[in-house]
Design goal:
The protein is of the alpha/beta class and 501 residues long. It folds into two domains: 253 residues, Glycogen Phosphorylase B (Rossmann fold, 3-Layer(aba) Sandwich); 194 residues, Glycogen Phosphorylase B (Rossmann fold, 3-Layer(aba) Sandwich). 41% of the residues lie in helices and 19% in strands. The chain contains 19 helices and 20 strands. The chain has a nine-stranded mixed sheet with strand order 3-4-5-2-1-8-9-13-14, with helices on both faces. Strands 17-16-15-18-19-20 form a six-stranded parallel sheet, with helices on both faces. Helix 14 links the parallel strand 18 and strand 19. The chain is elongated. The protein starts with a strand and ends with a helix. 50% of the residues are buried. Bound molecules: adenosine-5'-diphosphate (ADP). Adenosine-5'-diphosphate binds next to helix 13. The site of adenosine-5'-diphosphate has 16 residues, from helix 13.
Length: 501
């Protein structure tokens, strides 16, 4: 198939979260499986500073935005390690900025305008470049207008009648909600500003727009696909998602094992695989303890957390347990994260007051993230919700037993160490079901008791996890099915429209 990815971030060119990892890796796997794939994203300042070879294409275009015309240009590169072309929409007034979407905790005021431009520019670029396209794969609210433009403006446009859209939702909490006058920027008729289509409590909602108009919908794990149809996880869009339920499926993200593999990872003190982890992993643990200034103690359980310091990730529960445990439990904590100032303060204080038990590195360090994955015994992810989550997948590969809240992708990828699952040889970690400090503490205790008292079960958990394959191959095949279904639904919709005329 001919697939064009349109996304607001793609690794390694610009990244704020897992979305970039998906859009950097999935196109390469799809190409490997025989599809013709191209990618489009904005030419942010980060893209130009990424150190990747990027060349201008000499293609210019003019885009109507409200009552003005804005000029853009195209740049080109390839996804590293592949032939997959990536095109960058250059418009420096919109994209040459310090951050992608916000600065100093405040969203850019013209975010709607920036992404109206990007969506229109992506469609215009496909036309100008004459890119073959069966499906446009859109991601999150930033590209939510593309399905609407395809439906409203391109459906009867020669050469575009067949083009279907698939929208992947990476996180329901970010919807691209703007005041109603931004509707004028979209160039779409006010008749679409109604509660069945683009309107959301008097405002313009770009994620909702995408959900309503896309031919197919996916999110990043089967459990999250179920959860977002409920009030607790739908962030107000559960009704629309329920209505579009038959078009929605969950496909778990994959891992790039060329980057995340303890047998080849260049950042580690010692490399290891499932066959020799009992030699290599203790070396990595000792090296990590030295690096973090923790006592070098082989039998003290080392619990790791890496991620954004945001409420979503359940840091409040962690801090509550840590405050008790630093006084009484012989465990060590290795923490890597940046985010909300409150958690910087609390975690900084815990590590200053208890340096032999808590090491908090409040920064972004890809290399340290690798060493933590390799050196820790347990990896904790108590997220209140987690569309997919990547660290638990890395942890499985690195023999670091995950302890997770059973939600979203965490529920789908970690199998709880119940006696039944252990007997069946499928257990890989520990799950708790209520997002409370009590449940977290009980489960962490259960994990640590197993670590201390039952080395055979611990070995089984580690090795079952390390043997699993979460590479992109399977996920890419599921996406191929989703593209076919979206195309089929698009054809059916066109047939229906024809018979109505
Ligand atoms: P989300 O997209 O919600 O932030 P994910 O688990 O899907 O969470 O992906 C986050 C990615 O960013 C992971 O690869 C994780 O290791 C990485 N990451 C997050 N914070 C840091 C940090 N402070 N240092 C290094 N890597 C980080």
């Amino acid at each position: 198939m001919n697939i064009v990815f349109v996304a607001s971030e793609v690794a390694p060119f610009a990244k704020t979260g897992g979305l970039a990892d998906v859009c950097g890796a999935l196109p390469i796997e799809l190409a490997r499986q025989g599809h013709n794939v191209a990618v489009m994203m904005p030419a942010y300042r980060q893209v130009k500073q990424s150190g990747q070879p990027i060349e201008p294409l000499g293609v210019k275009f003019d885009i109507p935005i409200g009552n003005k015309i804005v000029r853009g240009r195209l740049l080109r590169s390839v996804l590293p390690g592949s032939d997959v072309p990536i095109f960058f929409v250059e418009q420096d007034d919109y994209f040459d900025r310090p951050e992608l979407y916000r600065v100093k905790g405040e969203d850019y005021k013209d975010n709607c305008e920036r992404f109206v431009f990007f969506c229109r520019a992506a469609l215009e670029s496909i036309r100008l470049l004459n890119l073959p396209v069966d499906v446009i794969h859109c991601h999150d609210w930033q590209t939510g207008l593309i399905p609407a433009y395809l439906h409203v403006e391109y459906l009867h446009c020669h050469g575009y009648e067949q083009v279907a859209s698939l929208l992947t939702i990476h996180n329901m909490a970010y919807q691209g909600i703007f005041w109603h006058w931004d509707m004028l920027l979209t160039g779409l008729d006010w008749k679409y500003f109604n509660y069945n289509q683009m309107e959301f409590y008097g405002k313009l909602n770009l994620l909702k727009t995408g959900i309503v108009f896309a031919d197919g919908l996916t999110t990043v794990s089967p459990r999250y696909a179920e959860e977002i149809r409920t009030e607790a996880f739908g962030c107000g869009l559960e009704g629309v998602l329920e209505q579009r339920g038959e078009a929605l499926s969950g496909i778990i993200n994959g891992v790039d094992y060329t980057i995340w593999n303890p047998a080849t990872d260049p950042h580690l003190a010692d490399k290891f695989s499932v066959d020799n982890w009992q030699i290599g992993k203790p070396q990595c643990k000792a090296a990590l303890q030295r690096e973090l200034g923790l006592p070098e103690s082989p039998r003290t359980p080392l619990i790791a957390l890496v991620g954004r310091l945001a409420d979503q990730k359940g840091w409040d529960l962690v801090v509550e347990v840590m405050r008790r445990w630093v006084l009484e439990m012989d465990v060590q904590w290795a923490i890597l994260g940046t985010g909300e100032p409150f958690y910087h303060e609390v975690l900084g204080e815990l590590s200053r007051n208890h340096p032999h038990r808590v090491a908090a590195r409040l920064e972004f360090s890809d290399e340290l993230a690798h060493r933590i994955e390799a050196g820790a015994d347990l990896f904790l992810m108590p997220s209140r919700y987690e569309p997919c989550g990547l660290n638990q997948l890395y942890s499985l590969k690195y023999g670091t037993v995950p302890v997770v809240h059973a939600t979203g992708g965490l529920a789908d990828s970690v199998c709880d160490a119940t006696s039944e699952n252990l007997a069946a040889g499928r257990a890989t970690g520990f799950q708790f079901h209520e997002p409370t400090a009590v449940a977290l503490e009980q489960t962490l205790r259960r994990a640590i008791e197993t670590y201390w008292q039952d080395s055979a079960i611990w070995q089984q958990l580690v090795e079952t996890g390390m043997r699993q394959d979460w590479s992109w191959g399977t996920s890419a095949r599921h996406y191929t099915e989703a593209y076919h279904l979206a195309s089929q639904r698009h054809r059916e919709m066109r047939e229906r429209l024809k018979t109505q005329r």
